[in-house]
Amino acid sequence: xxxxxxxxxxxxxxxxxxxxxHHLGPxxxxxxxxxxxxxxxxxxxxxxxxxxxxxxxGEIDVRCHIVKQRDAGRGLDEIIATxxxxxxxxxxxxxxxxxxxxxxxxxxxxxxxxGYNPKFPFYGSLEExxxxxxxxNEGLKLYCGNNRIKVLDLTDVLSARDGQFDPxxxxxxxxxxKKAFLLVENKLLPxxxxxxVSRIRFFRLFKRTGLIFxxxxxxxxxxxxxxxxxxxxx
Length: 234
Prior knowledge:
44% of the residues lie in helices and 10% in strands. By secondary structure, the protein is α/β, with parallel strands linked by helices. Helix 1 crosses helix 3, helix 2 (59-71) packs across helix 4 and helix 7 (194-209) runs antiparallel to helix 9 (216-225).
């Protein structure tokens, strides 16, 4: 089972039944690092040993909080180092509860000025947030690499030339839109195990041929019973 755990950016994965998406609300990377993954009552999601968990946090931190903290007098390097290390340490503590949990950290999606929300307003110019986003993601790559945690980096497929979120791939706000889904999933596939990849390809095949709409119960049962079947003839 592939669990996607995070803020509203988990929504892009809800386009496929191959993922179990758990939207925890407007939770920041800072809060995960401070309180731990377990603090969000996630036992109800039945994450089991052998599953994959994709962690999706950080966009709110870049959009609303990091520049504000810098302007309050903290050094930018210290903010990013503390934020990233605390977050990855929280992921590691959660992983240690299991014998074989495959953890993937999705890096923060590119910033944008689209979709202003007065409850979670932009703080800092777009140029500042693009720079900070890059610094944070580089730090996360380093921390994950040092701790054998996989990284999902969507920067190259979601960014416009100037580094902001490509508006053609967004939902008109800060999230991935419909056109982004396959680009995102194709970047994720190399991070997954062979049975998970086969299940996703099988789901794509059924959806493409239309059978998933004609016989959805049959499709779901086949996906569960024989996930390797999709490799035949593909």
